Amino acid sequence: MAKADVGPVRVAVVDSGVHADHPHVAGVAGGVGVAADGAEHPGFIDRLGHGTAVTAVIREKAPRSEIYAAKVFDRELSTSVEGLVAAIGWAARARAQLINLSLGTANAAHAEALGGAVRDAAARGAVVVAAAADGATQWLPGSLPGVVPVAVDWDCPRETYHCSRRDGVVIFAASGFPRPIPGVPPSRNLQGISFAVANLTGCLAQALEGRGSVSFDEIVTLLVERAERPA
After folding, report:
1. CB-based contacts of 9: which residues, under 8 Å, 6+ apart?
2. DSSP secondary structure string, 36-55?
């Protein structure tokens, strides 16, 4: 893949939108709302808090990145595959290098549509980061080829991650805790695989600084080289 001019790493967060003025976010470079039918609209204000917390995790680790918000969730953490595919497409057209999907579906009927979206994004130089398979549950698009798969490891420090192989596929594991909120115990804060994905995306965005465009295989190699080995 040809190297692009080196600039800030561009990260798209496909989620519930973002509060751009939140102190843990410190602004975004742009955003869009995507309805369940795939139609775009200009509003991407976060009404749920999930997307803002995910974005804060990425900003913490990669403060110089350019972050774009693609809002697919409005009043609840639910959308359609059409909306998700459209949001991935928008992120790729916005020239995102990384697309954070702290979400997933176990519906195998959506594999073809999501696989096409992942391939189209890759053709534009974007790599999707999403939840890996969990036991018998094949989360999509995280279980598809060309996606950086992430599992949760509650014992992993938030500032790092580790990797292993499962059926010949490299799986990355990161903390399921978000950025701490002063005065709020971790047990009462948001937590889960969503934040393992965001923690890994943040580490990857940090690793990509100054490198320009890289391929999926180069990203996996880079992540493996920088991973902490599990105890």
Report:
1. 62, 64, 65, 66, 97, 98, 205, 208, 209
2. TTS-EES----SSSHHHHHH
Cα–Cα dist 85/79, whole Å: 11
Distance, CA of 58 to CA of 149 (rounded, Å): 16
pTM of this structure:
0.94
With tokens 């992942």, the residue in question is: 118
Pairing of strands 30-34, 66-71: parallel
pLDDT tens track for 164-202: 998 888 999 999 999 988 888 887 888 999 999 999 999
- Residue 96, token pair as written in the block: 């995102």
Q: Look at strands 10-15 and 161-166 and give their pairing.
A: unpaired
Vertex 72 angle, CA 67 and 73, to 5° = 110
CATH of 10-226, one of 3.40.50.970, 3.40.470.10, 3.20.20.30, 3.40.50.200: 3.40.50.200
